[in-house]
Specification:
78% of the residues lie in helices and 0% in strands. By secondary structure, it is mostly helical. Its main location: membrane.
Length: 113
């Protein structure tokens, strides 16, 4: 809830309402890929997504108990930039596919019949 309120306040006062903040990109990509995987496997998405949350909770509890936060020293700005670059490439490729697929269908529709 606090993240949502802070995001709304940021977008109202920053002057850039379309900025993607925080982990929105990676989470959106994960959810869309996970939804497609659940559809392909005929698994209810809500149930599987709840299990993902429980699995993440288990990992976070184990990592917190082991004081694994010490490993964050190994994460540099370069690592963060590489991760953001991968997310940007995924967004660009998905949008290019969605823009290009109607054109490809229109051009090659006569060849298939």
């Amino acid at each position: 809830m606090a993240s949502g309120i802070a995001g709304i306040a940021f977008h109202l006062f920053a002057g850039q309402p379309l900025v993607i903040v925080s982990s929105t990109g990676p989470v959106a990509m994960f959810i869309s890929m996970f939804h497609k995987m659940c559809s392909d496997m005929h698994v209810p998405f809500a149930d599987a997504y709840a299990l993902v949350g429980l699995w993440a909770m288990l990992f976070l509890l184990v990592l917190a108990a082991a004081s694994a936060s010490i490993l964050l020293r190994q994460v540099t700005r370069f690592t963060d930039d590489i991760f953001h670059g991968i997310v940007a490439v995924l967004f660009i490729s998905v949008s290019a596919y969605q823009c290009g697929s109607p054109i490809i269908y229109f051009v090659f529709a006569d060849l298939s019949s």
